[in-house]
Amino acid sequence: HLSLGERYQIYALKGAKHSINFIARALNRSPSTISRELRRNKSLRGYRAKHANNKACDRRANNATTIVTDLWAWVTDKLKENWSPEQISGVHAGISHMSIYRYIWRDKRQGGTLWQCLRRKGKPYRQRLTAETRGRINDRVSIHERPCIVEERSRIGDWEADTIIGQHHKQAIVTLVERKTGLLKMKRVGHKTAQQVSEAMIELLAPVRLQVKTITSDNGKEFAQHKKVKQKLFSPFFFADAYASWQRGTN
Questions:
Q1: Residue 207, class by beta-carbon neighbours within 10 Å (0-12 exposed, 13-18 middle, 19+ buried)?
Q2: In this structure, are residues 100 and 88 in contact, taking their beta carbons and an 8 Å threshold?
Q3: Which of 31, 49, 118, 155 would disulfide-bridge 24, Cβ 3.0–4.6 Å?
Q4: For residue 163, what are the contacts with CB-CB under 8 A and spacing of at least 6?
Q5: DSSP-assigned beta bridge partners for residue 175
Q6: CB neighbours of 240 closer than 8 A, spacing ≥ 6?
Q7: What is the pLDDT of residue 85?
Q8: What pLDDT digit, counting tens, does each position of 150-169 carry?
Q9: Sheet containing 214-217: which strands, arranged edge to edge?
């Protein structure tokens, strides 16, 4: 947990217009920790250190209490309305999304059907920032080595990449979003292979290659030919942390 002193440092550095990555390095913390702190503990007037500290302490106190039956009934209703555990915990700060997942899997072991309400349909939740298990992409460059100016959205040319997967994982749509303008480019591919995805990215961005300064994607194997994209577009290619989709939230 962040201390009150660290929160005062965040408040001062944020007031000086420093980026999240800069603040994280100054405090020797993960950028995701700083991002989450600014998002969860801000007040109506913006981020204030004392207010943020009180809010965090109140949340820990709430999580320490036993979750009553009425609350679980409310959680069950929201799950049946297709809310995700993250959405539910975001609305009710007294319960964490991990507690909800444990509740769902306990219900499944007892013969319940709440697990069928999950968007991942029976796939156990994997905690964010755990070790990657799908293999490694050769010569990947971490998002933490990306220039800090990308976070500021002050220039045109920083793109985020992803794929939308079709039914039965047969076809896919390659998507590219420019962070500052929100410009979206898409192309359908017959199969989600690294070759087809890289060719689609090059085709989409070649007409605007002078406005391609960086590309950021997740760790999907379909981006394994990132070096080919980099060579064709003369643009550095970065990869977000595993299970950290918020690091490329524009897409």
A1: exposed
A2: yes
A3: 31
A4: 172, 173, 174, 175, 192, 197, 220, 222
A5: 162, 186
A6: 143, 216, 217, 218, 219, 247, 248
A7: 87
A8: 999 999 999 999 999 887 77
A9: 184-189, 172-178, 158-165, 214-217, 237-239
Distance, CA of 26 to CA of 9 (rounded, Å): 9
User: Residue 37: beta bridge partners?
Assistant: none
In this prediction, residue 233 carries a pLDDT of 92
Q: Which of 163, 169, 168, 229 is nearest to 195 (CA)?
A: 229
Q: How many CB atoms lie within 10 A of CB 114?
A: 17
Looking at the chain, how many residues does it have?
Answer: 251
Angle, helices 4-15/20-27, rounded to nearest 10 degrees? 140
Q: How far is CA 181 from CA 51, 218, 245, in A?
A: 33, 21, 20
Cα–Cα distance for residue pair 183/186, rounded to 1 Å? 10
Nearest C-alpha neighbor of 216 from the set 185, 177, 183, 181: 177
Which residues are CB-contacts of 232 (< 8 A; sequence separation ≥ 6)? 202, 206
Closest listed residue to residue 241, CA positions, set 91, 74, 24: 24
pLDDT at residue 127, rounded to an integer: 52
Distance CA 76, CA 130 (A): 28
Lowest mean pLDDT among 95-99, 132-136, 140-144: 132-136
State the SS3 of 154-209.
CCCCEEEEEEEECHHHCCEEEEEEECCCCCEEEEEECCCCHHHHHHHHHHHHHHHH
